[in-house]
Design brief:
Blueprint: H1 4-27, E1 31-37, H2 45-58, E2 63-66, E3 71-77, H3 81-98, E4 106-110, H4 117-133, E5 139-142, H5 154-164, E6 167-174, E7 177-189, E8 192-196, H6 202-206, E9 210-214, E10 221-230, E11 235-244, E12 262-268, E13 271-281, E14 285-289, H7 292-302, E15 307-315, E16 321-334, E17 337-343, H8 346-374
Length: 375
């Protein structure tokens, strides 16, 4: 039997969550709900306060509720599940770097208009428990219609969803510049998708080998091979659909690639660690190419949450070289590519912003020529 304090929390949370559910339903806006675990240590209350302060600020003051047994609920209003996933990854990484705190268990789901308070929390609890039991993955998620973990036949899942919800977004990139288009799925059968796109862009797809599909009812972004392009009908035929746990589509900042190879330097404790080649950069992250031998060394540092200094030079609009430097932490290592989250000073952030704008202007001009040549 619940004591009076537990009853208070139970009714308080139910009232707040039901109010969010009602608002999302009336206004036809998305509501993502997150359940995460974090143990409160009574001997270190100030540290716990700082963790909550960080999370609450980072989520732009969305409702943060104590649930039960050292678990908490985040109610992310007007937030699609893709954005909720990205947000939680950033919170998880930010806590680790800034406060040396770790969230080990995360479950996420999206409110459906057919949900009750119980069905929503039951589904959320399922993903939270899956996260708790997993030794390799800490974030599990799904929606009422899309349960990636329980249904082995993913094409059947897609077919059922796309029959009712035809709208989706196609994403591609031109040297780092995102190109997206709202589309309607004409047909999906036997793992093949038929999609009509804008006649002005059909030539662009003719030069691409794949595209990314984002659907608000499907938590994972889908990478699809472009099997055929029918320019007369502005039709794409897509195959080999692959669900991605992380993708470039979910990045927030504008990311650009350099016009020609740029040498970068990675330093540890102010000492040269290794040379690298700049692949792309944004105001919040950077991607570098390293030699295999340097990747092996870096993997050891990744486990230690080592802080690095990064230095490189870029051209300005006046054709001068200017130095950019900042501190960063390893976010992920993929083959020979290393992605770091970066913490530039205000001055360095301004330099990066100007370089991104300069490259974007040049790339947009190239993109126009690319599209003209594709038509």
């Amino acid at each position: 039997m619940l004591d009076s304090k537990e009853m208070l929390y139970s009714y308080l949370n139910k009232g707040i969550l039901e109010a969010h559910m009602e608002s999302a339903k009336l206004n036809d806006t998305p509501l993502s709900v997150v359940k995460f675990g974090f143990t409160f240590d009574a001997d270190n209350g100030y540290f716990f306060k700082n963790v909550i302060h960080f999370i609450h600020t980072y989520t732009h003051f969305n409702s943060l509720l104590y649930h039960e047994n050292n678990t908490f609920l985040l109610l992310l209003k007007e937030t699609k599940i893709h954005a909720a996933k990205t947000l939680m990854k950033k919170i998880e990484h930010g806590l680790k770097q800034k406060l040396k705190a770790e969230i080990k268990t995360i479950g996420i789901t999206l409110f459906d208009t057919n949900d009750t308070y119980k069905s929503l929390l039951d589904r959320l609890d399922k993903y939270y428990v899956m996260s708790k039991l997993s030794t390799r993955k800490k974030m599990f998620y799904g929606t009422l219609e899309f349960d990636f973990y329980e249904t082995p036949h993913h094409n059947d899942l897609l077919a059922n969803i796309l029959k009712k919800h035809h709208q989706a977004t196609l994403h591609n990139f031109f040297n780092g510049i995102p190109i997206k288009e709202e589309i309607v799925m004409n047909r999906f059968e036997n793992g093949i998708a038929y999609v009509n796109v804008s006649p002005a862009k059909i030539g662009f797809y003719a030069k691409e080998s794949f595209t990314f599909i984002q659907h608000e009812r499907i938590p994972d972004v889908i990478k699809a091979h472009i099997l055929k392009v029918d320019t007369a009908k502005s039709l794409l035929i897509l195959s080999d659909l692959e669900f991605l746990d992380a993708s470039p589509v979910e990045r927030d900042d504008m990311r650009v690639e350099p016009e020609k190879p740029i040498h970068a330097l990675l330093l540890s404790n102010k000492r040269r660690f290794c040379d690298a080649t700049l692949l792309n950069v944004s105001e919040s992250s950077i991607a570098l190419h390293l030699l295999p031998s340097d990747i092996e060394k870096l993997i050891q540092y990744k486990e230690l949450d080592q802080e690095f200094d990064v230095e490189f030079h870029v051209s300005t609009e006046q054709q001068f070289l200017t130095k950019i430097s900042f501190k960063g932490f390893i976010f992920s290592i993929i083959d020979s590519m290393v992605i770091l989250t970066i913490e530039p000073t205000t001055f360095m952030k301004s330099k990066i912003k100007h370089y991104v704008a300069f490259r974007q202007k040049s790339l947009l001009s190239s993109l126009k020529q690319h599209l003209k040549g594709a038509i």
